[in-house]
Amino acid sequence: MAVVSDVIISLGVLATFYGLLALGMNIKYGFTGLLDFGHVGFYLVGAYTAALLVIEPDAGGPDTVYVVGLDLPWIVAVLVATVLAGVVGVFVALPTLRLREDYLAITVLGIAAIFQRIVQAESWLVNGPDALRGYTPPLIDLFPVTGGSPVGAAVMAVAGGAIWAGSTWALGRAMELEFDAGTGPGVTVAGRLHAVVTFGTDRLIGFENYRGGALVAGAIAAVVGGVLSFAAQDGFLAWAVVVSVFTWLVAFVWLTRYSSGFDAVDYLTTFALGAAYMGALAPMFFLETFQLWVPLTGLAFAVVIGVTVYLYSNWQRFAARPFGYGLFTGLWFGFIWYIPLQILSDVAAANWPSVASSIFGNVVWVLSLSGDVPEIGYPRFKLFLFGTLLLVALYLSELTIDSPFGRVLRAIRNDERVVNSLGKDPFMYKIMSMAIGSALAGLAGALAAMHFQVLVFTMFAPRVTFIALLMLFLGGVGNNRAMVVGAFLFWAFQTATTQLSGFVAPGLRENIQAFRFVVMGVLFLLLLYYRPQGLMGERAAAEAGSE
Amino acid sequence: MSDAPLLEVENLQKSFGGITAVDGVSFELEAGKVTGLIGPNGAGKTTTFNLVSGFYKPDAGTIRFKGTDTQTLMRPAPVEQGVWASASAGFLGLIGAASGRVTYGVSPDVLAGGAVAGAAVGVGLYVGQNAINNRRGAYKHSRPFRLARQGMVRTFQITRELTEMTVLENLLLAPPDQTGEGPLNAIVRRGTIAEEEAQFRERAEEIIELLELDHLRDEEAGNLSGGQRKLLELGRVLMLDPDLVMLDEPVAGVNPALTDRIMEAITSMRDEGYGFCIVEHEMDVIMSLSDKIIAMAEGQKMAEGPPEEVQQDEQVLESYLGG
Fold it and tell me: Are B249 and B295 in a shared domain?
């Protein structure tokens, strides 16, 4: 039985805090034009600050030496780490911001390198070149939780309620867009589903107030889920199924919005393309000899890419909707991996119970079914926690950027002297931008410390900055929401290649791991060449395009 | 202070390398008057503009705006002083604590004492260097935005519009002291910001209409023609409601009908009491618009007076108007 929903969950966890890191970069570079190659330095500050705040005081053992351990709760640690990274950002900004773009980039790169070297060399500070470990992430003792217990009920109530509220909001938004297009309430799939998931309250509250309605629905769902989970393990399982299915339905509603105008031909073509990309990997699965599958896989990929490019440039349907075609090809590819591929060997062996449990486990993503009992494990809780923080940070960033403050930042990116001539001090704004961006990096660092449970100086190499920049360019410069997309795509690529390397001989595995950076570099070059504004483009443009 | 002229310039000097761009220029500008600045290319008009508006530091000479030396006006804002002083305090406080730790060991008293002493030294150092710099004659502040806040606003000869922002956004950027310019306010005081935005938007719409840019309201400024950019820059300045407007070639590349409109706008604003200083090569425009003309050549003032008088000046005729 292969339950790959766990893989997606761990991918999601990485994508959330890298998304925060990219969000910080976007505030600095995307909106203000400050090319901060030392972004990782603030990530480092956040990570080590959080770790030192939560770790227990050094007992004087010979293994681990660190300057101070405060044994504080994580919530304090995360807040302090965020604020301190912001303050360090100001300190770094004061001397460096007088420099022009490229000089600024090099200088802050140097400062980040200094931070990294300090951590590496000063053995009294955070255990020298060795790893700092010995702290535990928050609430880990409670997990995994199952039904029939107060903790399980509480977790299901909070997480289930929040997911329910979020999904209901997304559904309400889709419905609102349909209203704008001229349909009435309750007519479309989205409208009917909305009536069901709000437990009928949407008529009382009014469809226009779908935001408030989502909160009410979430609260009801929290109570229902809590009670069911407290009553029995079966109730816990049943409610998890309901929540999971609901999220899938919302995803389908939104996908139909993106595929508006698609007919059977379009669906089939994108499916064929997705299947073709998956099929291009087939030689890797079936052929043992490396001399055989490498050229074959390469050839297959060349053919499929060639076909894609040919269709894009010569076929009216594809050329008219490159976004929809790209999205759906990718989705079909992911879908083929997520369900059919996982049950392939079981189907061949006619092991039907295993097929069923595999599908069930991947559909009911809220629960982990890898163990003996369906449960909510710590990774899922972490994804929920990080995801919530990311959404809050994203919302606040959007508010800030939509305000006159954001307007001044964009003006500075355009031409600093204009801002100066209009009576606004560009220097102060750049400092504020550095502070906010660095604080976001610090938050990402604190979450990384929580996630990895061990910190080594090598984790804070300049590479991290460039990964954040890659995510920035992948999503779209100056588009906060695209940062999440960029981070997710990056880690999806990483996860996919890691999964792939599982199929090859162990000796080759390292080659694949190294080779994927080459592939990534080539893809990045192509992206910069053909779509420098990123997949989603700058926000204003993205909105005009999709709605 | 109210008797003082709007702007007094005395013996202004600036050289770049071996070239003396401005060589001892003195003049006065009055509120409610339009002053034209003319002269051949390289006469030092734009340099004078940059010096007066604070974008260049003068080598010598004084500039007084509404009776106050612009060097005083351009001192760092209290906020900026606060940032530098606290950064200085923080940094030296850290050094103080660290040296306390190294010298006397880890007692909280020593650490706190070291930090406080360091912070005090830090603040002292910042305030001290600030005081010394303000007294030093040779020290020149350069914070043009401080002058703009006092009511002296300029445009640029080569237009500098914010190409990636729309015409409306360009204008909305200008109003001073917007509540939403603080990142925290942007989150917690959205109601106030929305009200303010509505007001600014109304004013911006008026200006857009005045400058006949209505059809381009949501166009990115980068897509505008040269003349339209000139208008946009003028509009941005008007959003600020300044006392002294310095325009560097406001009608270069603008069609005749719009030129008339701009001239009308300038004249009516002059009658409301605004002061203008305009560099312009269009002789018809500058002569009919100005109450006073200053003619420059080779970094020096050649003639000064009412337009009719300057037009008759032998030197001016010879070097510039091409007699």
Answer: yes
- Cβ contact A91–B53 (<8 Å): no
| Residue A93: per-residue pLDDT | 92
Same domain, B146 and B277: yes
H/E stretch holding A94: helix A74-96
Whether B157 is in a domain gets the answer no
Q: Which of A176, A339, A317 is nearest to A254 (CA)?
A: A176
Q: Which tens digit of pLDDT belongs to each residue from B114-171? A: 899 999 999 999 999 989 988 887 788 888 999 999 999 988 877 777 888 899 999 9
Looking at the structure, tell me whether residues B51 and B183 fall in a common domain: no
Residue B286 burial class via C-beta count within 10 angstroms: exposed 0-12, middle 13-18, buried 19 and up: buried
Q: Would you say B9 and B27 are in contact if contact means Cβ atoms under 8 Å apart?
A: yes
Question: Do B146 and B46 fall within a single domain?
Answer: yes
Break chain A into its structural domains and give their ranges: 5-139+377-461, 144-258, 264-338
Q: Is the CB of B79 less than 8 angstroms away from the CB of A410?
A: no
> B155 in a domain, yes or no?
no
Residues B251 and B266 in one domain: yes
Contact: B186, A404; criterion CB under 8 Å: yes
DSSP bridge pairs for A126? A66
Residues from chain A contacting residue B77 (CB–CB below 8 Å): 425, 428
* Cβ-Cβ contacts under 8 Å for A486 (sequence gap 6 or more): A19, A22, A470, A471, A472, A473, A474, A475, A476, A534, A535
Q: Which domain holds residue B100?
A: 78-135
B217-263 residue pLDDT tens: 888 888 888 888 888 888 888 888 889 999 988 888 788 888 888 88
Query: Domain ends where: B223, B253, B269?
Result: B223
B79 → chain A, closest CA residue: A428
- Nearest CB to B173 within list A87, A94, A422: A422
Name the pairing type of β-strands B152-154 and B68-69: unpaired
Residues 178-197 of B with CB under 8 A from A: 178-183, 185-187, 190, 193, 197
